[in-house]
Amino acid sequence: MIRFRYSMIALLSSFPALASATESPMGLLRRSHARVNQLLLKERGAGAQDPTTREEIKNVVNGFLDYRELAKRGLDQHWQARTRREQEEFVAVLRELIERNYVKQLRDNFDYEIIYRTEEIGGTEATVHTVVRVMKRGRPADTEIDYKFRREGDRWFVFDIITDGMSLVKTYKSQFNRIIQRESYEALVKKMKRKLEED
Which segments of the chain does DSSP mark as H helices, in order? Predict the structure, then answer.
């Protein structure tokens, strides 16, 4: 069974709305993290999960995470072999999987602290180094998270997230390629859709 496991904690601070490339990637992380925190606090104050809050969070994330680039890099050499319709379908299914897990993990892991370390910008790519600190059994536990950005026009997008040295793109690439090689591309898509039906 395919596992779409990636550290959702790695996405806890990844919520920038669309913005000019003149605003640094780190600035986007800081500003947008504050917005999502505001939404979650409002929902917690109401004492119930709110579908509107879920959609607002998804909208912020969808303006930031480049699902198409993630799908393309994840499929790697198999991407070009797909028709335009197949590519669009794959992006849509992957996006829904990420969205569902994302919002769920946000609600389950609300108590955390983000430490912004450094930012490296070189041309149209950038990396922001952060640490997410959560409390486990009364003790702080740190997770190092690097966000890989690319600039398209006047906007920054994340195309990979590296959690304690583990790349989201490489993880997907390994999972996708293994299933395609052992079975087929069609089998991969069926497994992904089945996962959506289970949740």
Answer: 25-46, 51-62, 67-75, 84-108, 168-182, 185-198
Q: Are 129 and 144 in contact (CB under 8 A)?
A: yes
Instruction: Tell the residue number behind the tokens 């335009």, with chain if given.
Output: 84
The string of pLDDT tens digits covering residues 133-187 is 887 787 888 999 999 999 988 888 889 999 999 999 999 999 999 999 999 999 9
pTM attached to this predicted model: 0.81
What are the tokens at 169?
């793109």
Whether 33 and 53 have beta carbons less than 8 Å apart is answered as no
- Distance between CA 75 and CA 83 in Å, rounded? 13
Q: What's the Rg (C-alpha) of the chain?
A: 17
Q: How far apart are alpha carbons 90 and 75 in whole angstroms?
A: 10
Residue 185: closest CA among 93, 95, 101: 93
Among candidate residues 136, 185, 143, the one with its CA nearest the CA of residue 164: 143
Among candidates 75, 32, 43, 31, which has minimal Cα distance to 170?
75
